[in-house]
Design brief:
Blueprint lengths: L9 H9 L6 E9 L2 E5 L4 E6 L1 H6 L12 E8 L2 E7 L5 E5 L7 E6 L3 E7 L6 H14 L2 E7 L6 H14 L5 E3 L8 H7 L5 E5 L6 H9 L25 E3 L5 E3 L13 H7 L1 H7 L16 H8 L4 H43 L1
Parallel strand pairs: 3-5, 8-9, 8-11, 9-10, 11-13
Antiparallel strand pairs: 1-2, 1-4, 2-3, 4-5, 6-7, 12-13
Helix pairs in contact: 3-7, 3-10, 7-8
The protein binds guanosine-5'-triphosphate (GTP) and zinc ion.
Protein name: Small ribosomal subunit biogenesis GTPase RsgA
Pfam families: RsgA_GTPase
Family: Belongs to the TRAFAC class YlqF/YawG GTPase family. RsgA subfamily.
Length: 352
Amino acid sequence: MTLEDLGYNLELENYRKDQNLECFGVGRVISEHKERYVVKTPEKEYEGEIVGNLRFTAQNRSDFPAVGDWVAISEYDNNKVLIHSVFPRKTIIERQAVGKQGEKQIIATNIDYAFIVQAVDRDFNINRIERYLTLCNTSKVKPIIILNKIDLINDSKLSELVSKIQERIKQVLIIPISNESQKGFEKFKTIIEKGNTYCLLGSSGVGKSTLLNNLSGKQLMKTNTISASTNKGRHVTSHRELLVLENSGILIDNPGMREVGIADSKDGLEITFNAIIELSKDCKFKDCTHTTEVDCAVLKAVESGEIDKSSYENFLKMEREKEHFESTIAEARKKDKDFGKMIKNYKKSNKD
Ligand SMILES: Nc1nc2c(ncn2[C@@H]2O[C@H](COP(=O)(O)OP(=O)(O)OP(=O)(O)O)[C@@H](O)[C@H]2O)c(=O)[nH]1
Ligand SMILES: [Zn+2]
């Protein structure tokens, strides 16, 4: 295995030279739990710890290493390294931090492509695909739609579903597959390229773990088909969150990725709902909400069928969520500021 197999490239190497990091080794973070990292190099997997300087200069959580990061390291014990710095990230997938309104948490970095996995049975829902697409657009990760479990339907039903998606989502590759019958896998495997990093997005039960096992050629993730326990259908997550696939490519799959929603998606929404955004320039009012206004170009297009009604409703829903999210950030910032002011006044009054 080489560093390139792990996704290393010339751009990263140039950065390393520019920053005079050549005295350090290079590795990729493959898991993180409470500031304990596992760093992978072509030779080994190390336990990683960040150096004090990195901790002290960190402005916030996102300056700490995350799964997918390239880091400058030095070995200090047989299986241990110190992490000195984090290389610039090409892409970032993040979500709202649990319990912390308006704060973000990085789930993974440097992902090139996301497989948006959806099953053709009960799970099939184009709104949900749009949701994940928006996340991809926000994160600058390129999307590919994987339609799974096609063994459950016939070919004509499949082409019906594919054209339904294509009506609303243009220019995204759709690959129908079945883990069960292995149909579609040959084509699927050809799009996975060496040096590229992928992730799996999709709701619970669509077959992500099964797919991962199929791609890795090993049983890495336990899928529970029969489970007597209370948490039925839950898999046991293996320790490695980044793995090098059998033939080529790197796949990141961690618990956070499975719970990801939409965080800050302004630009993302604009790309996903490009047609709506374009039309809204023709609305009579600049601040048109496209709900009740007269001479609203968007509403007109929905009426005439030019814009899909469900796509429009999904757009409004995501806009509302985004606004809510942005106002919680603004509130949190204001609180911080007020607190800062209070401290300042306090210090001042103590001086006087
Ligand atoms: N018929 C059929 N069933 C499948 C296919 N792929 C996966 N399954 C089944 O779907 C169920 C859920 O699969 P998982 O791989 O655990 O789904 P997951 O997306 O990892 O779900 P979480 O672990 O909850 O996120 C299991 O019972 C699988 O055996 C398929 O191609 N066809
Ligand atoms: Zn409008």
